[in-house]
């Protein structure tokens, strides 16, 4: 058998190459056509779905508006939607249980954790303001599922440490200029200017009272806080900032602006057994607002209502004793 000549081999190779090019063109044309059909189908399907969703959303919105109108306003409807985000009770109880048996260092006592959780169970989901970051911070964030929880912390490095480790944690560092050793002088100054810079109802953003915290992000002063937990800043020694500013600021927040307008505010003061907390709570949170039978020896529970006298935090003397009121 004779071998194929060079010309024959070139002709065969050229024919094979042309055949492959033809197959490639046919394949590419079919792929492009299929892609085009898929695009048309997807676009048509998406438009139909969007129209259907828009129609049902409009109907739903109309029904909501009608219901709200029939109820006499949208507040009840909003509250119902908020409560639908409430953490299921078994999940809530399980979180509290495991937190109360935790062996984490520097944590609250079991009774304090359960007392705070009991109040939060009634209010959540809500706007919760917490002074201080600690071992329990992830718990408060979880228990207030569906609400907004904001932490204020004196140690900016602790804020930067915890935020990446707990997604969703909203925390801001606060610079305190007060010292525990000066608390009586600060209290005397606040009493002297109770009708002016340190008055009970005011815009804290512009306050010149030495006990007022006025350097927070501006929007925080416009939030209607339902509950405030005071567990900071530190106050273990004479040079610590002490909780004078957080107690005073909370007392003003509860009586002013959006917080006062939405109704009573639950205020929980941790380490209630210490002198600064005792004296400042009598002065600004008031014994008449303390809830009897609530809290623990190391946890004071107060319910603060908005408004009141322009030059006094409490209805009676700051030395009003142990008079308390029961929550209705």
In short:
One of its GO terms (biological process) is xylan biosynthetic process. With 328 residues, the chain is an alpha/beta fold. Helices cover 47% and strands 9% of the residues.
| CATH domain fold name of the largest domain | Rossmann fold
Separation of the first and last Cα atoms: 112 Å
The whole-angstrom Rg is 32 Å
- Corresponding CATH architecture of the largest domain: 3-Layer(aba) Sandwich
CATH superfamily annotation of the largest domain: NAD(P)-binding Rossmann-like Domain
Task: Detail the poorly predicted runs.
Answer: 1-7, 24-28, 30-75, 317-328
Helix content: 40-55%
Report mean pLDDT, rounded to a whole number: 79
Written as H for each helix and E for each strand, in order along the chain, the element string is HHHHEHEHEHEHHEHE
Give the CATH class of the largest domain. Answer: Alpha Beta
- Hey, roughly how much beta strand do the residues contain? 5-15%
Number of domains: 2
- Dominant shape: globular
SS class: alpha/beta
Helix run count: 10
Strand order of the largest sheet: 3-2-1-4-5-6
Major sheet attributes: 6 strands, mixed
Q: Oligomerization state of this entry?
A: single chain
């Amino acid at each position: 058998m004779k071998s194929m000549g060079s010309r024959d081999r070139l002709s065969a190779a050229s024919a094979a190459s042309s055949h492959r090019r033809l197959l490639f063109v046919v394949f590419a044309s079919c792929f492009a056509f299929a892609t085009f059909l898929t695009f048309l189908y997807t676009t048509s399907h998406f438009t139909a779905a969007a129209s259907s969703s828009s129609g049902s959303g409009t109907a739903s919105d109309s029904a909501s508006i009608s219901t709200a109108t029939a109820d006499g306003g949208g507040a009840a409807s909003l509250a119902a939607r908020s409560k639908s985000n409430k953490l299921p009770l078994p999940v809530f109880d399980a979180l509290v249980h495991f937190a109360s048996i935790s062996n984490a260092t520097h944590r609250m006592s079991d009774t304090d954790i359960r007392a705070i959780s009991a109040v939060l169970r009634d209010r959540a989901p809500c706007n919760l303001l917490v002074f201080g970051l600690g071992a329990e911070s992830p718990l408060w964030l979880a228990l207030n599922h569906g609400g907004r929880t904001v932490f204020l912390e004196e140690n900016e490095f602790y804020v930067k440490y915890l935020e990446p480790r707990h997604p969703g944690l909203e925390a801001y560092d606060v610079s305190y200029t007060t010292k525990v050793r000066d608390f009586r002088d600060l209290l005397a100054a606040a009493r002297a200017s109770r009708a002016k810079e340190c008055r009970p109802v005011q815009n804290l953003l512009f306050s010149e009272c030495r006990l007022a915290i006025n350097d927070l992000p501006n929007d925080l002063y416009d939030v209607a806080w339902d509950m405030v937990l005071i567990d900071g800043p530190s106050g273990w020694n004479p040079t610590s900032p002490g909780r004078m500013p957080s107690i005073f600021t909370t007392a003003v927040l509860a009586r002013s602006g959006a917080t006062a307008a939405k109704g009573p505010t639950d205020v929980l003061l941790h380490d209630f057994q210490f002198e600064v907390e005792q004296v400042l709570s009598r002065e600004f949170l008031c014994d008449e607002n303390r809830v009897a039978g609530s809290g623990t020896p190391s946890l004071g529970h107060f319910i603060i209502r908005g408004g009141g006298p322009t030059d006094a935090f409490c209805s009676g003397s700051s030395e009003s004793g142990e008079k308390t009121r029961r929550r209705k």
